[in-house]
Structure formats: structure tokens, C-alpha cells
Design goal:
The chain has about 350 residues and is α/β, with parallel strands linked by helices. The protein is built from 14 helices and 13 strands. Strand 1, helix 1 and strand 2 form a beta-alpha-beta unit.
Length: about 350
């Protein structure tokens, strides 16, 4: 007997996979939605999955384009009680500006709409958990470019996100805001029987178990933090607010607990104080634990990427879910440990 069946989109992604692991550990069955069928072998061969040995509690369904009309309807019919929507386009700074709408914004918004539509058509879905982002509630300029005097919470208004967008990152932030607004419109119009939980993590750091290369490692939000540690100047600042991948995944699973979350609502996920993480400690962490990596040029102690101070109050999240967010040093070390391992592996080839 399991706790119920969860459909997880983006199951091979940074957040989706870690959530899948914790869901299986917690006793749920999982239907993993994949864009490419061959990713199922990668997931089944992961050490954490082998250790759990989930057997029939882990199944897979291939959905090549989650933004296609009614893309998830059939998958949700498969006795699903919960949906976790973590699928998102991988960040790609090379996407031309005239393709931002089709390659970034449309997949994010339409994918979210498809999840909600499929849930509405199914009488069995009790709860939908959506992996959103701090960018859904924090205007792009205040998140990445200009220090703000505002303190953002999970009840902050959704910012207007109008084109044109100067960068792919700005377009992705706009997509998050538009998807959240579309969710609100859906709920107001349809008044569904299920609860919707929007989770809004800040910059996520930590180990990405499925990443076997440095390129794959940077496909999650680790890319924002690595800009700081690489010593290379990057066009945007990194927000001061961060959170550990394990905390993000844990809260996804805890969001299914009807005793903890009793109604549709949003949650900000961010560690440290309201001002975020202590990035001024980052150089000392690198010097102390990774001197050889610095010598080889894999890491830098010069802080190549400037930090933009952002204020997020996520105390309500910690209280409701009963967790204390993992500290900045642990976030950094878990991410950089893997980065150094992958760099060493690639150098040996």
C-alpha cells in the first residue's frame, strides 16, 4: 500500500528528479513524465533509485511536448491523485530574441495550463504542486539588476511582464509571472476540486545527481551560482537569495500533506535572513575547501559575478512545513563538490 500516486513532470530535471527520489522514499508511487524515453534508463540507474529499489512504484510516460494541446490528459487518467509540475525549458542564453515567445514563454505558460486542464478533467486529482520561481513575484529589475527596498513575500502582487525582453533570462522571468497569472485566472474561472500549491524557490544550489558532465550540471539553477565561483564576468548579477535543492524537494513532498497545506496558496523558498545568503563568505569557502581547484583554474576566489541584494521573507514557509532551511556553506559545498568531481573526470579523458 502506497501513500498515493504522483505524476511528476520534468522528472529528469534538477528539481524534478530530486523530488522524485524523496517522494519514493516517503512511500509514494511515481509516474515520471519524460520528454525523451531514453531518460528512463538514466533515472533507473541512478544510485539513489537503486538504493530505494522502487520496483512497480516507479513508472514512466513519454510526453515529447508538454505544451502540445491536451498533452497530459492520458497520463493523468492513470489513477493519479497528485501532480507535481517541475518541467521547464533549460536556460539557453543563445536563443534569439525573436524566439523568446515561442521557445521560452509559451512552453512555460502552456505547460502549466495543460497540467491544470488535465487535472480538471480527472475526478481523482486532489492536489497540484507547481514549481514556480521567485521571479514570478519579484520584478526582473529588482531581482537581477537594481537593489530594492521592498521585502517580497508569497502574497506579493504578480508583476507585469511585457515584451520586449533584453535577455533570455528576462524572458524566463516573465514566463514565470505569466504562468502564475494564468494559474490564478484558471482557479477563478473553474473553481476546481483540487488544491494548487505554487512553490517559489530562490537560486537553487546543490548536487544534481543525474548530471554527468559540467554542461549538464549547469542546466539547473546551479548556473547562476557558478558564475560567481568561475571568476568569469557574466552580464547579470546573481540574486543574493539561495536555497538548497534538498529543501526544495522536501517541501514539494510535504506540500501533499493535507494537514500542513489546507488550501490553495503560494510559498517562497529561501534560506538565511531576509537579505538572503552570505555571499561575502563564498571566497573563504573556496579558499578553505578547494585550493587545488583554484590552482587548476576550475574555481576562482575573485567573485566574477556581482551580487544583487534581494529581500525575501520566507519565514512562513519554514513554520508551516516545520523545516529549518539549510545554510549557505552546505549549499555551496554540495554544488562545488560535484563541480570539481566533474571537472576532474573530464580532464582525465
Amino acid at each position: 500500500m502506497t501513500k498515493g500516486r504522483i505524476l511528476i513532470t520534468g522528472a529528469s530535471g534538477f528539481v524534478g528528479f530530486r523530488t522524485l527520489v524523496l517522494a519514493l522514499e516517503a512511500g509514494y508511487s511515481v509516474v515520471a513524465v519524460l520528454q525523451h524515453e531514453d531518460k528512463s534508463d538514466l533515472i533507473r540507474s541512478a544510485p539513489s533509485i537503486k538504493q530505494i529499489n522502487p520496483g512497480s512504484r516507479l513508472t514512466f510516460v513519454t510526453v515529447p511536448n508538454i505544451a502540445a494541446q491536451d498533452a497530459l490528459d492520458e497520463a493523468v487518467k492513470n489513477n493519479v491523485q497528485y501532480i507535481m509540475h517541475s518541467a521547464s525549458p533549460s536556460f539557453d542564453s543563445t536563443i534569439p530574441t525573436d524566439q523568446f515567445e515561442s521557445q521560452i514563454i509559451h512552453p512555460v505558460v502552456k505547460g502549466t495550463q495543460n497540467v491544470l486542464s488535465a487535472a480538471l478533467k480527472s475526478s481523482g486529482v486532489q492536489r497540484v504542486v507547481i514549481t514556480s520561481s521567485e521571479a514570478a513575484l519579484i520584478p526582473y529589475l529588482e531581482l537581477y539588476e537594481l537593489e530594492s527596498f521592498n521585502t517580497f513575500t508569497d502574497t506579493s502582487p504578480i508583476p507585469t511582464a511585457d515584451a520586449p525582453f533584453a535577455t533570455a533570462l528576462a524572458a524566463l522571468a516573465a514566463a514565470r509571472s505569466r504562468a502564475l497569472a494564468a494559474t490564478d485566472r484558471f482557479l477563478a474561472k473553474n473553481k476546481p476540486q483540487f488544491i494548487v500549491v505554487n512553490l517559489m524557490p530562490s537560486v537553487i544550489l546543490g548536487r544534481n545527481e543525474l548530471a554527468g558532465t559540467t554542461k549538464g550540471f549547469l542546466e539547473g539553477s546551479n548556473f547562476e551560482g557558478l558564475g560567481y565561483f568561475s571568476g568569469k564576468m557574466i552580464s547579470t548579477k546573481v540574486p543574493s537569495v539561495t536555497v538548497h535543492i534538498n529543501d526544495v524537494a522536501k517541501i514539494h513532498v510535504l506540500s501533499l500533506d493535507a494537514k500542513k497545506v489546507t488550501k490553495t496558496q503560494n510559498f517562497m523558498l529561501s534560506s538565511g535572513s531576509i537579505y538572503g545568503s552570505a555571499w561575502y563568505e563564498a571566497d573563504d569557502i573556496v579558499k578553505k575547501y578547494y585550493p587545488e581547484a583554484v590552482k587548476k583554474g576550475w574555481l576562482s576566489v575573485n567573485g566574477g559575478q556581482p551580487v544583487n541584494r534581494v529581500k525575501i521573507d520566507s519565514r512562513r514557509t519554514g513554520t508551516i512545513f516545520g523545516i529549518e532551511f539549510t545554510g549557505f556553506e552546505k549549499q555551496v559545498r554540495d554544488a562545488l563538490d560535484q563541480w570539481v568531481e566533474l571537472k576532474a573526470k573530464e580532464e582525465r579523458k
